[in-house]
């Protein structure tokens, strides 16, 4: 690099290289080949480079990314992409000027006459033109350059079109930058969700033990003959017991929600057997007495998570039953090309179409008059179980009234 490098310029270039890393334009390993992370974007960039060479009627065109010590070619036409030192780079001499450079014969230009790309040490460039790749924020990434082995020139219209192509190159690089930012944000969100889930599970577990102990003492006190039903203490115990049981239910919902998404233990299961287990956990048996029926089917899933899913859906059917008719719940499954779809259909109060998406979000309750108790985590847990199995959960209306939940368990 010509001239004296000041401390200020060195710091600025170091910061610019850090910015290039954020754009994904600097190889993470020393000596690695520069490239775009997205194959489709890389193909589009190569098309722009070929178009630049064709537009200017020259054999060579490249996109150069210039760091504090290197020139990295991320796309090229007529030559193989390569890496050289910044000191040897022709573009490094002019790319920070912010202006288009057109040189008829580089061997006659004092800026380039002794450059190894001109003298024959690396190449014998004569005609040379470059346009800085500058973002809307004023950050200069490098340059789009075209060149040939013989003297040449460009018409004003060619220069204008070359500048348009340079702008399109910047747009592609900005797109990669935004994609990387989204990927980083998604990775951080997943990490935060994992940490939050582990924390919620740990706290729920730690709180459940003393709460269970408290409820045990409440039940003992409720059975104490010295505290008759009409005694004010009995009313207080009933309030404590009711509140404690609701809190315990919420803690169990949080614990179930935090467990979803771990390693699945898939096995061949009977839908009837797992549904019966889920119903028994709710103190019910399948059949006419409960109004819950199941058509057996075989499927491959994680037994514990499938049981939790069915238990949540059956509990919802019980909590949101219609006051106008006896509860009827039907559980079934249909095998398809993408996997097995488990359905739980009831004749309850239903969920309005405008509320269905919201009802699947964590901690969301519709708060309708007459609704039973709940934590707002049931459907959210079921949705996470579906996604953990590679599927999705859908809510539709049961013909004649009620809710049908369809859960795809991917093959």
Task: Summarize the helices and strands and which ones pair or pack.
Layout (H helix, E strand, L loop, with lengths): L6 H16 L16 H18 L3 E7 L3 E8 L5 E3 L15 E3 L12 H4 L8 E7 L5 E8 L8 H67 L9 H28 L6 E5 H11 L10 E3 L3 E5 H17 L9 E8 L2 E8 L9 H4 L18 H11 L4 E5 L5 E8 L1
Helix pairs in contact: 2-4, 4-5, 6-7, 7-9
Structure description:
The protein has 411 residues and is an alpha+beta fold. It folds into 2 domains: 7-183, Beta-Lactamase (2-Layer Sandwich), CATH 3.30.450.40; 265-410, Histidine kinase-like ATPase, C-terminal domain (Heat Shock Protein 90, 2-Layer Sandwich), CATH 3.30.565.10. 43% of the residues lie in helices and 19% in strands. The protein is built from 9 helices and 13 strands. The strands form 3 sheets. The protein has a 6-stranded antiparallel sheet. A hairpin with a 2-residue loop joins β10 and β11. The longest helix has 67 residues, at 156-222. The protein starts with 6 loop residues before the first helix and ends with a strand. The model is unreliable at 1-5 (pLDDT under 50).
Q: What share of the residues does DSSP label as strand, in percent?
A: 15-25%
Please tally the helical runs, counting DSSP H or I stretches of 4 or more residues: 9
Structural class: alpha+beta
| Strand segment count | 13
**Weakly predicted, low-confidence segments:** 1-5
Radius of gyration: 34 Å
CATH architecture of the largest domain: 2-Layer Sandwich
